[in-house]
């Protein structure tokens, strides 16, 4: 009966009900959408059997730096053959491959993995089988497994696909299996899975580049596995030679290289947890603002029912019964808001994932599942309870009987009710200010990042494309160099091209390979770690990284056998005191390698990302001597004002095909796009925080507007008397806005303290600005006060224009 009466009362007040449900739906829907991502990324386990037993084979060298390094074939063989704590060990890495045979060449993403990869993860093929031990041996005939999406796209899901061949990098590979539809690779999405076929010969330590994973034996802890890894370090150094230029003692005693195995989930997630927890916290503040708004609406509504509640109390209704009815009403509103919020989250989640898709690990499944639904129900009930709690405390107590007598106690209660509404407004302003400060700090961070000079001129005018040259298409390494130089010449002939160069990696995309280099001014000094890049002579010009001293190297001197190199300005300054002093000096990669003359010094380039310092770098030309370090992939940089246009990309494709029709263009993008992607974490956080802060500001202003409108409606007679006695409109406006200013000022003061405490949690997301940046706090406070005064001015102006006689008659 009580439920039916409550529902009837809500339907009889459609304006109040709709406003309340929509307000809660906004807060609950936003919270549910973000919680869905947090749940899928941080809370849910990896979608593999017994995922708590899966570990990432990562390493640290605290004496060198504290960064995480992965694995290599040397680590894989050592751990696989000598461990006491793992059930299985696997190695994998991603690389693009070229598929030919039907139509135009196509570059697809592949994962190369050892035969233990799928068994370690606990994955069974949908069709066919996994790789055998024989197929994982170097030189074995090629086999391939297809991902479910690629099987559908390339073969239409045909069940007779097993046994067919796919021409990959110019060689046939037999299809032996299809992966399950639900299977997702770890950090890397891929179309096919290939055997890694790792070599034992020619492996050095330390050498990193591949990802290692393992499954712990039943009952073994991660600490025990790390201790076992420490035991195997001497075995590693006894089995595989150390990289020339580094001694075993230096690796173990100075750098203290050793295992730092971690749960595989932690490696997959990376640093996303900082972003997601901050976002969830800010969305929680938005939900509190929505609850405060609804509580204010509830206060106004129950004030209109004061006489009804007083009569019910006088007729014997207990305080518990009255409170229960009020709480039931707010709970029903919370559930309705939660249902609508869940629908909003369901609609908005795909859009959110589309924005963040490139930054979320592919193996994690993010959806509105049962956990999210239960969490939404809990949030809805809690929101309804919180929204109805204050009205219950203020109005459901037995003192409402005083309303029947119109006593002075009613006036006192009215003052208390105004105080409650004012307190809610202060809380809303404070919470909104915290969110606005967080958003403002991210805006300042984004501005600071955008102001950083990456070392690349006009990146939007540089078209990049990757070309892979498998041995079946271009056999020898000398042939690779010849074809790359020929492609450089063909691309340079495309109309509108200003310059073309190529290198082994894109800039701004993270840490690249590095190693120890010695300089001839201090031959006995410890080697200096430099990030090395193999480039063509025109690379720096095409990239837009100017020389600050010396000159570029040339193909003629390289072909003549002259060993030359270019180093970055920070490396030159650290080693020789100035860039100019480095020109003419020599550098070499270890004591057993020939010296290279430093012919030039280039401006520093932030190869590891805009938010990271520019690494000390050495640029070396591609020569046959460096063949052991080279990849058959090259990234070409084409500088042109036509960069990024479809017609330009087609012209580049035709230029490449005119030389070799089996080479597809891969990773076609401008350096401007690479630059924007390097800011993904800041951009994503900024967008979501800005949306949240905007919603919080809107809800806060609605609350201020509603309170001022209600107060003015209650004081219509007083205002009419003031106006009849000659009070000017300006004085009335000042009186009303002064009241608004007091409330907002108290909220701003409270919010500044809260922001100073809470934004410290964002320090890992900030760049070039502190969590207590005074400019941000001052600007946000000014904006909030100005908009709040506007929200109060609108109803005040309307009341100030009312005819005093009409106001008095209305009373």
Overview of the molecule:
The protein has 811 residues and is of the alpha+beta class. Strands 4-5-10-7-9-8 form a 6-stranded mixed barrel. It has a 6-stranded mixed beta barrel with strand order 16-17-22-19-21-20. Helix 13 (408-451) crosses helix 23. 41% of the residues are buried. The model is unreliable at 398-414 (pLDDT under 50).
Radius of gyration: 34 Å
Sequence of strands across the biggest β-sheet: 4-5-10-7-9-8
Helix-strand makeup class: alpha+beta
Distance between the termini: 37 Å
What's the number of helices?
Answer: 25
Percent helix, as a range, is 40-55%
Number of strands: 24
Uncertain runs are 398-414
Mind describing the biggest β-sheet? 6 strands, mixed, barrel
Tell me the fraction of residues in β-strands, as a range.
Answer: 15-25%
Shape: elongated
Question: What brief labels describe this structure?
Answer:
alpha+beta; six-stranded mixed barrel; 811 residues; 16% strand; elongated; six-stranded mixed beta barrel
The gist of it:
This protein has 811 residues and is an alpha+beta fold. It has 25 helices and 24 strands.
């Amino acid at each position: 009966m009580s439920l039916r009466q409550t529902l009837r009362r809500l339907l009889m007040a459609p304006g109040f009900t709709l406003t309340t449900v929509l307000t809660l739906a906004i807060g609950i829907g936003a919270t549910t959408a973000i919680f869905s991502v947090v749940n899928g990324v941080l809370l849910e386990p990896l979608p593999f059997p017994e995922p708590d037993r899966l570990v990432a084979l990562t390493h640290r060298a605290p004496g060198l730096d504290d960064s995480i390094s992965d694995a290599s074939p040397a680590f894989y063989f050592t751990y696989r053959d000598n461990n006491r704590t793992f059930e299985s060990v696997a190695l994998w890495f991603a690389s693009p491959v070229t598929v030919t045979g039907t139509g135009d060449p196509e570059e697809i993403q592949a994962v190369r993995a050892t035969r233990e990869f799928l068994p370690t993860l606990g994955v069974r093929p949908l069709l066919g089988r996994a790789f055998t031990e024989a197929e994982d041996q170097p030189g074995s005939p090629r086999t391939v497994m297809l991902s479910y999406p690629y099987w559908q796209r390339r073969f239409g899901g045909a069940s007779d696909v097993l046994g067919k061949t796919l021409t990959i990098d110019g060689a046939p590979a037999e299809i032996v299996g299809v992966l399950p539809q639900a299977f997702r690779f770890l950090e890397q999405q891929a179309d096919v899975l290939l055997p890694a076929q790792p070599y034992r010969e020619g492996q050095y330590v330390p050498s990193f580049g591949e990802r290692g994973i393992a499954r712990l034996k039943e009952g073994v802890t991660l600490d025990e596995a790390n201790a076992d890894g420490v035991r195997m370090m001497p075995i590693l150094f006894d089995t595989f030679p150390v990289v020339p230029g580094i001694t075993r003692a230096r690796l173990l005693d100075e750098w203290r290289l050793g295992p730092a195995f971690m749960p595989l989930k932690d490696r997959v997630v990376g640093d996303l947890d900082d972003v997601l927890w901050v976002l969830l916290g800010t969305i929680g503040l938005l939900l509190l603002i929505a609850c405060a708004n609804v509580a204010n609406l509830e206060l106004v509504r129950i004030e209109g029912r004061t006489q009804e509640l007083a009569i019910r109390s006088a007729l014997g209704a207990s305080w518990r019964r009255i409170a229960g009815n009020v709480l039931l009403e707010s709970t029903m509103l919370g559930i309705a808001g939660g249902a609508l919020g869940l629908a909003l989250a369901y609609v908005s989640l795909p859009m959110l994932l589309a924005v963040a898709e490139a930054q979320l690990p592919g193996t994690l499944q993010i959806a509105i599942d049962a956990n999210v639904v239960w969490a939404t129900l809990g949030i809805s009930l809690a929101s309804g309870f919180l929204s109805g709690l204050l009205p219950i405390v203020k109005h459901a107590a037995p003192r409402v009987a005083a309303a029947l007598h119109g006593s002075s106690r009613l006036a006192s209660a009215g003052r208390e009710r105004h105080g409650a509404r004012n307190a809610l407004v202060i809380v809303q302003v404070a919470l909104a200010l915290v969110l606005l400060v967080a958003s403002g700090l991210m805006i300042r961070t984004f501005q600071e990042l955008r102001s950083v000079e990456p070392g690349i001129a006009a990146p939007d005018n540089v078209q990049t494309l990757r070309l892979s040259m498998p041995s079946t298409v271009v056999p020898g390494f000398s042939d690779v160099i010849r074809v790359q130089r020929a492609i450089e010449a063909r691309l340079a002939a495309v109309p509108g091209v200003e310059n073309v160069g190529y290198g082994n990696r894109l800039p701004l995309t993270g840490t690249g390979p590095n190693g120890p280099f010695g300089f001839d001014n201090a031959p006995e000094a410890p080697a200096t770690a430099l990030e090395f890049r193999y480039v063509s002579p025109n690379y720096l010009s095409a990239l837009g990284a100017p020389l600050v001293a010396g000159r570029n190297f040339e193909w003629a001197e390289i072909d003549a056998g002259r060993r030359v190199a270019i180093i970055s300005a920070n490396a030159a300054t650290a080693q020789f005191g100035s860039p100019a002093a480095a020109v003419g000096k020599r550098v070499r990669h270890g004591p057993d390698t020939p010296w290279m003359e430093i012919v030039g010094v280039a401006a520093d380039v932030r190869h590891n990302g805009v938010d990271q310092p520019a690494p000390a770098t050495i640029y070396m030309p591609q020569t046959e001597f460096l063949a052991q370090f080279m990849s058959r992939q090259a990234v070409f940089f084409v500088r042109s004002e036509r960069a990024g246009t479809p017609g330009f990309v087609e012209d580049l494709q035709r230029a490449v095909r005119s030389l070799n029709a089996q080479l597809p263009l891969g990773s076609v993008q401008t350096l401007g796009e690479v630059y924007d992607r390097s800011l993904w974490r800041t951009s994503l956080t900024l967008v979501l925080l800005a949306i949240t802060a905007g919603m919080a500001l809107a809800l806060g202003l609605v609350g201020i507007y509603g309170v001022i409108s209600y107060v003015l409606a209650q004081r219509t007679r007083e205002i009419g008397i003031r106006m009849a006695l000659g009070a000017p409109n300006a004085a009335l406006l000042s009186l009303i806005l002064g009241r608004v200013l007091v409330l907002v000022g108290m909220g701003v003061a409270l919010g500044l303290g809260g922001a100073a405490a809470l934004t410290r949690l964002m320090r890992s997301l900030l760049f070039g600005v502190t969590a207590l940046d005074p400019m941000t706090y001052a600007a946000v406070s000014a904006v909030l006060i100005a908009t709040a005064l506007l929200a109060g001015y609108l109803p005040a102006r309307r009341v100030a224009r009312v005819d005093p006689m009409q106001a008095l008659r209305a009373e």
